From TrEMBL:
Cleavable signal peptide: none
Top-level taxonomy: Bacteria, Pseudomonadati, Myxococcota, Myxococcia, Myxococcales
Protein name: ATP-dependent helicase HrpB
Gene3D superfamilies noted in UniProt: 1.20.120.1080, P-loop containing nucleotide triphosphate hydrolases
Organism, as annotated: Pendulispora albinea
Residues annotated as domain Helicase ATP-binding: 14-185
Domain of life: Bacteria
InterPro entries to which the protein is assigned, alphabetical: DEAD/DEAH_box_helicase_dom (IPR011545), HA2_WH (IPR048333), Helicase-assoc_dom (IPR007502), Helicase_ATP-bd (IPR014001), Helicase_C-like (IPR001650), HrpB (IPR010225), HrpB_DEXH (IPR049614), P-loop_NTPase (IPR027417)
Length: 849
């Protein structure tokens, strides 16, 4: 066993854990934490057992990555001369290499949390080691909170060890109320070279140039390249072929989807120089000896969640400055090294210091269900508490899925359905649809749907969309009920052909995701203890999907535009085959915001199912509105689901709006643009004229009420009572209503003070014009005023009218309110002109008498 930097500390670690239950350990990657510390605890337990100090307990190590769990277990087993699965084993999703003798168990993901579900006391477990804690994966945070809770309640003897490569140990040590130990490994300087400007070339070409550069340095050694994922690694591998042949290099991929043998090959020392193309597993989870140069793409696949479904999704993101520093450090383990960053210094400096812990940014639905089932979610203390909004959203979704009780007496407790959902180690949406499928006898196909939803898209073309290409296979234009069922058909076709590569290619499937779906589907079948393959009924399957996505219902507004349950709009992707269905589920969307998102995977539903499944969420209401086209106030009874209208019909009987409401709506429709709208409900011009007369009358007799806009509005509202349409309004004169409201006395006063017409001396009746803020006036031919000495008056004889005197050609020859003065001063001169121009008319010298 070759010595490692951590070795001298091991006796101290063991001793401290004898005295206190908890310990935080910080040491740089490669120090030997993962392979030596758990083993030291194991051997110490064995020694005590041999001394008769009681049976040794099990050691569980929680790793954030499957690859690390697998490699570490294999390494430790090898160092103690055993095969994995004997004393040392590992348990990751889809793989369980443990046996009855296993005492040291490397596990990942939810395996520990789920073990706590079935065995809340962790019987027989002596210590739990949380490795790579600086990664702050959600399972590490949850495990820490749960274990601490257990330790404070019924297992004070349980040992908790937190190990990390970069974590500032203080917060964790304070949380656990314990010491922290630190081991400084030897580190050499690493020279960092940034890109001088942004490189537009494809990533793999940038990688190839960078590898060529570092291989040209004096004394080249092994090169470690950090790339986001398997696909990028494959491309880089191709791009490096030429250089590898020239320089006799060994190009080796290293990521979680490889077989253990392939993973070993990347780590094991080799005769030739190695170029290891790795994901962020090589950041701190595994150490490859002999690396002297690092090429860093600055990218990583990071766990996030689909904004539509909350389902976990990996996406490529820029790594934090802390990660970038960690990556560079991998070049300085054996001697001074170099790190080439494929991004600029400015880019580096703009990055966040750390990636926030997963618990602060991921969907918490699955976690909440697990914790609620143990009834400990409210009792837990957290290193960093989960955000209350995420918890509230999780709780709401769980209620909708039927996983939590809503009855007051047991509100929030996990229901029988919720317990059944927990059997499936997946997002509760998927658990729910599988439980429904068990009941409906369509379980086998439902496991395929579940796997398709949980894993990456199997369709090769689905991703071409993001590369700019158009989605959909050529000729794939048929309209379908469900994109997901269409994917199921493709998967079944591939399965029937035993996943032969050429068949996968022919039907447009991507091998990696297809295998992942196959694995997940098989695992789910195992959990459901299903033996036969029941090809399910598609309608039943679509119903099952609804039970998992009751809050993702959408109604087609037009074309590809959808109205979403709960509000908001979305677009259906062009590649979606669900082209007709008016009602559908938005199963998977793109990563943009919810209200403008694009739905990539949809599945039709029947609106009746919403009534059948969620009767308690259907809201029946009557909506009364003024309908422009019919010019009527109409009452519509509607049934809505989360704001989406399921059914509408004209309301009848008591459901109809009452008169006051209808009147208000009708009045509102007329008066929306102001008082002018009223004119339409009296003979042309009559209302305006009458209002002006009433206002004039009031200038003479202030006791007359003011007929202003507010008065008219009030009268109109009353006028609308009992009426529901413009047609009905027109049947009665609004002017009569105004006069009725003023009462007969005032109305008569107005008629008297502001008469409509006046009769001139020679018998001609002339209309009086009333205008706001002006003296009323009349206009008539000059001759009509012959015989009138004084100006005619209104306002009960108090207000002389303004008189427009017209020549025979209807042109005004004078405007005056002093007829007497006119006859005297102006008429004599005017008379001469008029007699010349209109000799046939009579122009007496003294016309007033
Ligand atoms: P740490 O957890 O502190 O990062 P590890 O315990 O994983 O360190 O590894 C310590 C050292 O053991 C590594 O630097 C490497 O030299 C060696 N080692 C660990 N695992 C393997 C393996 N699977 N194959 C070869 N060497 C390994
Ligand atoms: Mg480690």
């Amino acid at each position: 066993m070759h010595p490692l930097p951590i070795d001298p500390l091991l006796p101290e670690i063991v001793r401290r854990l004898e005295r206190a239950p908890n310990l935080v350990l910080e040491a740089p990657p490669g120090a030997g934490k993962t392979t030596r510390v758990p083993r030291a605890l194991l051997e110490h337990g064995a020694a005590k057992e041999a001394n008769g100090e009681g049976a040794r307990g099990e050691i569980i190590v929680l790793e954030p990555r499957r690859l690390a769990a697998r490699l570490s277990a294999r390494r430790v087993a090898e160092e103690i001369g055993e095969a994995p699965g004997e004393t040392v084993g590992y348990q990751v999703r889809f793989e369980d290499v443990t046996g009855p003798k296993t005492r040291l168990r490397f596990v990942t993901e939810a395996i520990l949390t789920r073990r706590l579900l079935g065995d809340p006391q962790l019987k027989g477990v002596h210590a739990v080691v949380l490795d790579e804690f600086h990664e702050r994966h959600i399972h590490g945070d949850v495990a820490l909170a749960c274990l601490r809770h257990l330790q404070r309640t019924s297992r004070p003897d349980l040992r908790i060890v937190v190990m990390s490569a970069t974590l500032d140990a203080e917060p964790a040590a304070r949380f656990l109320g314990c010491d922290s130990l630190r081991s400084e490994g030897r580190r050499f300087d690493v020279r960092i070279e940034h890109a001088t400007k942004e490189d537009e070339r494809p990533l793999e070409l940038q990688v190839a140039s960078a590898v060529r550069t570092v291989m040209s340095l004096p004394e080249p050694g092994d090169v470690l390249v950090f790339l986001p994922g398997a696909r990028e690694i494959r491309r880089a591998q191709e791009a490096l072929e030429k250089l590898a042949a020239e320089r006799d290099l060994l190009v080796l991929p290293l990521h979680g989807d490889l077989s253990p043998a392939e993973q070993d090959r990347a780590i094991r020392p080799a005769e030739r120089h190695k170029v290891i193309l790795a994901t962020n597993v090589a950041e701190s989870s595994v150490t490859i000896d002999g690396v002297v140069a690092v090429v860093d793409s600055g990218l990583a696949r990071v766990m996030g969640h689909d904004p539509w479904s909350g389902l976990p999704r990996l996406r490529v993101e820029k790594v934090s400055r802390a990660s970038a520093t960690q990556r560079a450090g991998r070049a300085g383990r054996t001697r001074p090294g170099v790190c080439v960053r494929l991004y600029t210094k400015m880019d580096f400096e703009r990055r966040p210091e750390h990636q926030p812990p997963e618990i602060a940014r991921l969907d918490l639905t699955e976690l909440l269900l697990e914790l609620r089932a143990q009834k400990i979610d409210r009792a837990l203390e957290w290193l960093d508490p989960p955000p209350p909004v995420s918890l509230a959203a999780a709780e709401e979704l769980l209620v909708r899925l039927g996983a939590l009780e809503t009855e007051a007496s047991s509100a929030g407790e996990v229901t029988a359905i919720g317990r059944r959902m927990l059997r499936y180690p997946l997002h509760p949406r998927i658990g729910r649809l599988l439980v429904e499928a068990e009941d409906r006898g369509v379980f086998d196909d439902a496991t395929v749907l579940a796997a398709l939803l949980a894993e990456r898209d199997i369709r090769a073309s689905a991703r071409a969309q993001f590369g700019g290409g158009r989605g959909g296979r050529p000729g794939d234009v048929a309209t379908e009920d469900s994109d997901l069922l269409q994917m199921r058909d493709l998967f079944r076709e591939a399965q029937d052909a035993r996943f032969t590569p050429h068949v996968l290619r022919a039907i447009g499937l991507d091998a990696g995701p297809t295998f992942a779906v196959d694995r997940a589907h098989k695992q789910l079948r195992r959990i459901g203890r299903l033996r036969d393959r029941d090809r399910g009924d598609d309608t039943e399957l679509r119903k099952c999907l609804l039970t998992g996505y009751p809050d993702r219902v959408a109604r087609r507004v037009r074309g590809r535009t959808l109205a979403m349950a709960g509000g908001g709009r979305a677009e259906l992707a062009e590649s979606s085959a669900v082209r007709d269905a008016p009602w559908l589920l938005a199963l998977d969307g793109d990563e943009s915001r919810r209200d403008v998102g694009t739905i990539r995977i949809a599945s039709a539903i029947e609106p009746e199912w919403l009534i059948e499944f969620y009767a308690d969420r259907i809201v029946e209401s009557t909506r009364t509105t003024f309908v422009r086209t019919s010019q009527r106030v109409e009452s519509i009874s509607s049934m809505t689901y989360d704001g989406l209208v399921l059914d509408e019909s004209p309301a009848a009987g008591t459901a109809r709006a009452d008169d006051a409401e209808a009147a208000a709506l009708l009045a509102e429709a007329v008066l929306a643009d102001g008082i002018a709208g009223l004119a339409a409900f009296a003979p042309e011009g009559a209302l305006e004229e009458w209002v002006l007369r009433a206002r004039f009358a009031r200038t003479v007799d202030p006791s007359i009420p003011l007929v202003d806009d507010a008065f008219l509005r009030a009268v109109f509202l009353e006028h609308c009572m009992g009426r529901r349409s413009f047609a009905e309004l027109r049947e009665a004169s609004f002017l009569d209503a105004v006069q009725a409201r003023l009462g007969s006395v005032f109305t008569a006063r107005i008629f008297a003070l502001a008469p409509e017409r006046i009769t001139l001396a020679r018998g001609r009746s002339v209309k009086i014009r009333y205008e706001a803020e002006k003296t009323p006036h009349i206009a008539s031919r000059l001759q009509d005023f012959f015989g009138m000495k004084e100006t005619p008056k209104v306002g009960g004889g108090k207000v002389p009218l303004v008189v427009h005197l017209l020549a025979p050609n209807q042109r005004a020859v004078q405007v005056t309110s002093d007829l007497e003065g006119f006859w005297e001063r102006h008429y004599p001169a005017l008379r001469k002109q008029l007699s010349r121009r209109y000799p046939k008319h009579a122009w007496p010298e003294r016309p007033e008498s």
